[in-house]
């Protein structure tokens, strides 16, 4: 008979509950627009491109889990724009589309014709009042991100990308305090550094290296 560790059992339970029916009030249901297909789209995107986050998301309450899938799906959509779009003008238009769409969730009641990611985020904003600051910073940094010249640049990049996603996730959990904010910034920066180091073999295989330029210069690496 197959035996499961406590962690494996909890993961299995969380995975099953990810697809159970959401419990919301009648007042909330009138304001929500995402469908099961929208949530599934975000879940699949995160499962495919950000599997570690997907696993950790299973420990969040259902409403925060769906918010996290929406947030991380947005990040994936932004990251893949340069690879799925060829011309600079088209790339700029895609970033502008996401900026206008996401910022519009805070200012415009219109929810028709929204992409799945935007509908899931609309509901997360309605439920948890997620600050637009985090999403605006994320989109702006993904659009304007340039070469990392120094460690300070790398730290700022982490604060304006992964840390913003963590801040927004914390708000979906109704966690708003200075200690959590400090932890979010630290985790965002460390995650960014970790991701860069882990991606080094693939970068080198394609003839590039994204380490900060001051470190490369210090060790005479071209």
What characteristics describe this protein?
single chain, 222 residues, mainly alpha, 14 helices, 73% helix
Describe the structure.
There is one protein chain. This protein is globular. The chain is built from 14 helices and no strands. It has helices at residues 6-17, 26-31, 36-49, 51-57, 62-79, 81-84, 88-107, 116-128, 132-144, 151-160, 162-172, 178-198, 200-205, 213-218. The chain is mainly α. The longest helix has 21 residues, at 178-198. Helix 3 (36-49) crosses helix 8 and helix 5 crosses helix 8 (116-128).
Task: Tally the beta strands.
Answer: 0
Radius of gyration, taken over Cα atoms and rounded to an integer in Å: 19 Å
Helix content: over 70%
First CA to last CA: what distance?
56 Å
**Low-confidence spans: pLDDT under 50, at least 5 residues?**
14-27
Number of helices: 14
N-to-C SSE series? HHHHHHHHHHHHHH
Q: How much beta, percentage-wise?
A: under 5%
What is the global morphology?
globular
Determine the mean pLDDT: 87
Major sheet: none
Structural class: mainly alpha
Brief summary of the model shown:
With 222 residues, this protein is an all-alpha fold.
SSE blueprint:
Blueprint: H1 6-17, H2 26-31, H3 36-49, H4 51-57, H5 62-79, H6 81-84, H7 88-107, H8 116-128, H9 132-144, H10 151-160, H11 162-172, H12 178-198, H13 200-205, H14 213-218
Helix pairs in contact: 3-4, 3-5, 3-8, 5-8, 5-9, 5-11, 7-8, 7-9, 9-11, 10-12, 11-12
